[in-house]
Structure formats: C-alpha cells, structure tokens
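Troubleshooting log. The previous structure file for this entry was overwritten by mistake, so regenerating from the original sequence record. Sequence copied from the archived sheet and checked twice against the printout by T.R.
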Amino acid sequence: MESARNYLPAAGHDWFLPLYDPIVKLLGGEAARKELLERAGLRPGNRVLDIGCGTGTLAMQMKRLYPLVEIVGIDPDPKALARAKRKAASASAPVQFDQGFADELPYPERSFDHVFSSFMFHHLPADVKEITLREVRRVLKPRGAFHMLDFEGPEERKHGWLANFFHSNKRLHDNSEERVLGLMKQAGFENAQKVGRRTMLFGGVAYYRAATNADSSNYLNR
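Regenerated output below.
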C-alpha cells in the first residue's frame, strides 16, 4: 500500500525509474557508493540501515562486498522498493526492505551500528532534515556512525544540467556543507565532518560522517 504522505520518487520522476540505475552507474554512482562503503569500515555482524534506499543499489552493493553484514533498507516509494526486492530475490541475498519515511523510522532505539544515506538527503524538505537526523541518531547504537553521500551545494561547485534535471536548484541550494554539518550538530551528533569529495559528470558530491558518543541515553531522553 502506498503511503498517504507525499514523497519525491527515487528517480525524481516515476517515469524515469526504469532508467535510473543504469544511468547513475554510467555517471559514476556505483564507484561513488563503493567509496562510501570503504570509508565506513564495516565489520562482520554489524547491523546496517540504508535510509532512502530507493531501488536497493547501495544495499545490494553492500551485501556483495560485506556478506556477513545484516542490512535493512527503508524507502517510502513502493515502486522503487519492488525493484529492490526483485534484486535481492534474484541474487538470493537476505536483505530486508521496508516501506517508511526516514523521519519516522519504525525501529527501536540503538538498533544499528551504522546508518547510510546515499543521494537522498537533498530530497528532504528543509523542515524534515533535522528530524530525520534525530531519528538516525536515535536508532544508532553508542559509538555508531552515520555515513552520507550527496550532492554538494551550489556554492561549493557549479552543477551541470544533469544535476538540475534530477533535482531542483532549490533542493541543491539547501545542501551546503555548512548547512549539513550544522544540522548534524543540532541533532546531537559528535565529530560531524565532511570527510571527502569527488567529481562526477553531474557535479561534485560530498562524503560526510557523524558519530554517536559512548552513552547517548541522556540525549535520547531529552
């Protein structure tokens, strides 16, 4: 059943969904996501959440590289999730895909060692971003980490027509490094930082990492 809430489809437009995966791969998305995973330092037995998982590309890539990691993906788009589930079934990969929103995660506190976000954060309305980060922090275990890959804001690098085709200038404008790091700190993360960047055909992308402290109970009870 589709959610009554509005959401931006995984590919920006429903009609573009069948072409989304091959085009993003062609433009360097697979290599960018691989770097995101390599930076995370996943270990066997880790439980990982992929918010805004879309068609499951990152989750499936993660399962291939780290087969002993438990992976859960969540997204509000039922059409994208249907593709993700078909990918997992075809590969006989035990990946759990749930329908839901990143600002209302249906998981208990301290459920995951790592949370990932790949090309999703800029989709969120401005007033939902901090709520989402607070939810991410809530479901992370002590000493857990949040890893994010997304477009840089327009003040960092000029984006080409491809980035603007996928997503509006308004959404990209709200994705500056200062804005992202500020929201992470407001949500209670420690050591929030931009840890890298790379250039793709549709513009610059940034890597962010933020951590929870050893005992986050006081913050969670606020």
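Residues 126-139 form the longest helix (14 residues). Archived copy saved in two places this time.
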